Amino acid sequence: MVYEQSKTDLRRSSVHPAVRTVGERRRQKSNRLLFLSFLGRECSLWLSLGGFHERGSDWEATGRIYNAHLLLDPQGTLVAAYRKTHLFDVELEGRVSLKESAFTNPGPEIVPPVDTPAGKVGLGVCYDLRFPEMSLALAQEGAELLTYPSAFTVTTGAAHWEVLLRARAIETQCYVVAAAQTGRHHERRASYGHAMVVDPWGSVVAQCQDGMGLCYAEIDLAYLRHLREEMPVFSHRRPDLYGRVGAPRTPLPQ
């Protein structure tokens, strides 16, 4: 199985760059998807592809898109499409300023894990990584491998990228595979890179650096199942105690 983080051109403009170039990128992504589908068929590969822009239902009025993660089987058939549910609206003074909701709609649902030769694959995108409720929901639905094609900033990536990936792997006892965008968009934004694979114990078993690269890892489902038998954390969970942990009644203190 091959995991790819699609590149996105975020050029400055008086109109938000993701909206200004979406028509051009949509054509490019369509051609790219056709090519990748052909390549997957030729090589008999499953492909996990992140960062494809899909027009939202209110496109004509707002110009908003969905940020979609696509899964293709070895015949090049689209078997699952997940639309990013958590949008990156963050203001870190002097470091990061992004408002994804200005040009993106939140996806309506979590997509059930998909059966593949590498195990049952759960689909996420980038900022979804920060929400353990989502990864736990996928694991409870049977996921054995979680995927997060991402474009972390250098600031957030250096501080949190590996920690979050390892945390999601440990708490779900899943493999976590995270393709990662790398490179500089303009003088104010660069992507962190460091694509990696983490095993269900939380060990990093493959990793790229901050430049373009490719890494490989074996997905050992026998090891995953053995680990879950030795440490059956899901059977130890106490949902009767957790209440509305995914939906706090009042905002957290600022």
From TrEMBL:
Pfam families: CN_hydrolase (PF00795). One of its GO terms (molecular function) is hydrolase activity, acting on carbon-nitrogen (but not peptide) bonds, in linear amides. InterPro entries: C-N_Hydrolase, C-N_Hydrolase_sf, Nit1/2_C-N_Hydrolase, UPF0012_CS. It comes from the Eukaryota. The keyword Hydrolase applies. Keywords: Hydrolase. Residues 1-221 form the CN hydrolase domain. The keyword Hydrolase applies. Belongs to the carbon-nitrogen hydrolase superfamily. NIT1/NIT2 family. PANTHER family: DEAMINATED GLUTATHIONE AMIDASE, NITRILASE-RELATED. This is CN hydrolase domain-containing protein. It comes from Phrynocephalus forsythii.
